[in-house]
Design brief:
CATH class of the largest domain: Alpha Beta
Order of helices and strands: EHEEHHEEEHEEEHEEHEHE
Shape: globular
CATH topology of the largest domain: Arginase, Chain A
Strand content: 25-35%
Structural class: alpha/beta
Largest sheet: 10 strands, mixed
Helix content: 25-40%
Length: 297
């Protein structure tokens, strides 16, 4: 089976940023120029605003963990990793149906906002951004974005590939409510203010997902989303999706330098009813193909 591949299993995807710095510290991949194969029902490719100054890369995995806890969410952790040069290609595969592979050049523009960071992401347009490549201020980075797959086998390089998998790729419903109530306790005064103000900030969100709950004389704001059970994949559907993906792995000759696996079961993007089965089946297929050491975050 060749070399031993580290496999890190995490509850939520923001910890991938920490994991990537850990494998750099271990000498498993170089500090820069790697290829990210991101397999997920979501692209997790958000950017924009971050708490703190993220211009310089962390000096260690421990520092990366502190950045993760302070600044990163479960959909914006890839952009800082690209800004710090860990990846020069991001390959996003978020559809279980084979799609044509596309490749485009993108840019990141770093902007300081007081003591915080704003990272603008966009497609590279030569007549707008060509002069930025040699700009001395260094506030731009350029990288490739590959999208699609399962019907093309010639895109994956032979080395320095980090396989990043969110298990919701196999079983999704896009509801954060499948993992149970998400609550924050509030005061009675805050409860009353919610009810008395029709324009309360939590009542005019794009989707009304935060509701007041009173229980045994205590008050909460609770996230609640409605999803039918029929939206969740059956075990047989999950297995078929895995078969398609691993068949593609075999055809590409993929041999990742490291693998990280996200459960997404705390957030609820992976329904808890399917989480244990999906993780077990995925790891079984990984162990059939590669020699691995498994770690948990």
């Amino acid at each position: 089976m060749g070399k031993t591949i580290p496999v890190t299993i995490m509850n939520e995807h923001r910890d991938a940023y920490w994991h990537w710095h850990w494998i750099i510290d271990q000498g498993i991949v170089p500090h820069d120029g790697n290829y990210l194969l991101h397999i997920d029902h979501h692209d997790d490719f958000e950017g924009r605003g971050y708490r703190g100054d993220l211009f310089d890369p962390p000096e260690s995995a421990d520092e990366a963990k502190r950045i993760t806890d302070k600044s990163l969410g479960i959909a914006d952790f890839i952009v800082p990793a690209v800004w710090h040069g860990i990846f020069t290609t991001v390959h996003i595969l978020k559809n279980t149906i084979p799609k044509a592979v596309t490749s485009e050049e993108y840019f990141l523009n770093f902007i300081r906002v007081d003591d915080d960071s704003y990272i603008k992401k966009g497609k590279y347009i030569p007549f707008l951004y060509a002069d930025k490549r040699n700009n001395a201020d260094g506030n731009y980075r350029f990288f490739n974005v590959v999208q699609g797959g399962l019907n093309s086998t010639d895109n994956i390089p032979p080395e320095n590939v980090v396989l990043d998998v969110d298990l919701d790729y196999f079983s999704w419903d896009d509801s954060l409510s499948t993992s149970g109530p998400k609550r924050m306790e509030i005061t009675e005064a805050a409860w009353n203010e919610y009810h008395s103000n029709r324009d309360h900030p939590f009542r005019i969100l794009p989707k009304k997902l935060i509701y007041p709950v009173e229980e045994n004389g205590r008050y909460y704001l609770e996230y609640h989303e409605v999803i039918p059970k029929s939206a969740m994949a059956t075990c047989s559907r999950i297995e078929k999706r895995m078969d398609s993906l691993f068949d593609w792995f075999d055809k590409t000759g993929l041999c990742p330098a490291a693998i990280d696996i996200c459960r997404s079961s705390v957030s609820g993007y992976m329904p808890q009813d399917n989480a244990g089965f999906t993780e077990k089946e995925f790891l079984r297929r990984v162990e059939e193909r590669w020699n691995i050491n498994t770690y948990g975050l």
